[in-house]
Input
Amino acid sequence: MIRTRLATFAWSLAGGVALTSAPVGLVTGQGLRVSAETRSFITVDTPVVALVHVRVIDGKGSPAQDDQTVLIEHGIITAVGGSVAIPSGAQSLDLTGRSVFPGLVMLHEHLFYTMLGSATWFVLNQEPFSFPRLYLAGGATTIRTGGSVEPYTDLNLKAAIDSGRIPGPDIDITGPYLNGPGLPGIYQMHALRGAAAARKMVDYWAELGVTSFKAYTNLTRTELKAAIDATHAHGLKITGHLCSVTFREAARLGIDDLEHGLLVSTDFVPGKAPDQCPAGAQVDSSLLALDLASAPVNELIQELVSHKVAITSTLPVFETFAPHRPRLVEGALDAMSTDAQIRYFDSRSLIAESADSTNLVLLRKEMAFERAFAQAGGLLLAGSDPTGYGGVVAGFADQREIELLVEAGFTPLEAIQVATSNGARYLKRETRIGSIAAGLLADLVVVRGDPTTNIRDIENVELVFKRGVGYDPARLIESVRGHVGVN
Output
């Protein structure tokens, strides 16, 4: 009896994820082992599948091709075209009126959800049950976390997904935030002190299996350089949400990626002290006064491009701070717990009642900066960043990121490319994922409609293939109703 109660308690702590190493017993038509729980969300499960009469958006920016066939065999795309021989015994899906594009490769995601605990502190609530399902339902078949507050949880979740025990995307786990002291209100981060501590932290978590690192707001240049060198020594990449170190300094130190773009850059703060993070009001003021067509902005963009530093767009989280934005999505609200909904609406109402348009102006500046960076040859990546005050929900926000890129001036084809093949290129997996072509993994999203003419059709997800196995997004979403903000 005691043993049974302990097992039940462990199950509840894991949000329904069985804490066991027993082998998963069911085998899909693609030869993948899955649990009965994961199998309950699978609707297409045969060794050979043909998607016929479908519009193909290849993820590389090429014009969409109508009335195509995509042939999937044992998890791999083997043929794409208007005239493809379909083997006998294959399952054919008539997708007339539908479009297919690559599974999203989103590079600023989290397995936690931010809730306001009070006016002065945040709760970073781990979401081991709901977020993996919502990411997959939204079409994100590969994600990189943008910092971890429970790295052991994240690593164990990745292992559970990889083994087929629970449904979810392929995950690149970023280690715990690399941050120094001086970040009040968030109590789930370790404070580094010195270059040796930065190296030690990178070495420790790299050995445990994390595949990326993230520098945060309160590091010195010496600490950041130590972290960059240690990360590269492991053959991994490091990104940053910076403040104490400028973008230009980080590029020269060798950072691979910068999160959020212009709105967290301190390069233009007058009199910025070295290795010190200016107050948020100073940063906002410097950006409001900034002329995006000016030589200093162009020079920064050129420096980032020349150092091959990518930028990760996270427009959904910035949008939540602009009055009356974003459009309320019923599915995202239904996924929230009652408590999360109340906290979200309270914060949203306060923003709507304010006459301050600063955040809307900054959002538009960020959009213009990202467009200019991409036009200059920079590698722009996409993410949702489910933080802020709780208005960014996994999966739904990933779709919104693509819509906001279109609002920023990208064509729908370009926006989809940013969220697919650009991410694969950054991860050095472009020969496996991120586009639709023979020889690549069958990570695919099927939507009703045509996102190239109406980008909001990207929300009409009917089927998500991960390695040739088709998942039902509606079932995944329904299974987590009321869970966001809980687990």
Summary: The first helix runs from residue 2 to 13. The radius of gyration is 22 Å.
